[in-house]
Fold Leucine-rich repeat-containing N-terminal plant-type domain-containing protein.
Amino acid sequence: MNNFVSEIPLDIYQATHLEYFNASYNPQLRGHIPMDLASIHVLGALDLSNNKLNGSIPAKFGSSSSLQLLNVFFNHISGSIPTGKSFKLMDSSAFVGNSELCGAPLRQCPDSDGTFENKGTWRLTCIVLLSVGLLIILLGLAFGIVYFRREVKTQWKMV
């Protein structure tokens, strides 16, 4: 509740060490999450919850070794959550309320064609279906051979 209007003040980007920066509950705070925040050398926790921020989370946050918490719940954030050691440890509650946000720990992001299946799952599905189809064909051939052999043995012979 800092009464930030429009953007996060530029002075904050000059800091090199920030343990905790809280810019939550500023209904007039809009725009993207600034890339400059990800450039702060040591940033322990960043709370940007309950604002009107949009765009994606800068990928550079994923490579931050000091970031322990990024709280962006209830904004208009979209795209995928950066992959990084620190993001794997964060709880999903830090990202809720952003319907267009995806990635661990939230739902899986769609592939470029809009599907959610990964290539490994698709390949495994194809192998299983082909194996089952081949098994059905082999069982059908075996049944046919047994049936026709039995038919040949039971025919009458004229003497």
Remarks:
- The two ends are 108 Å apart (CA to CA).
- The CA atoms of residues 62 and 87 lie 7 Å apart.
- The beta strands are 17-22, 30-32, 42-47, 52-55, 69-71, 76-80, 100-102.
- Helices lie at 35-38, 85-89, 119-153.
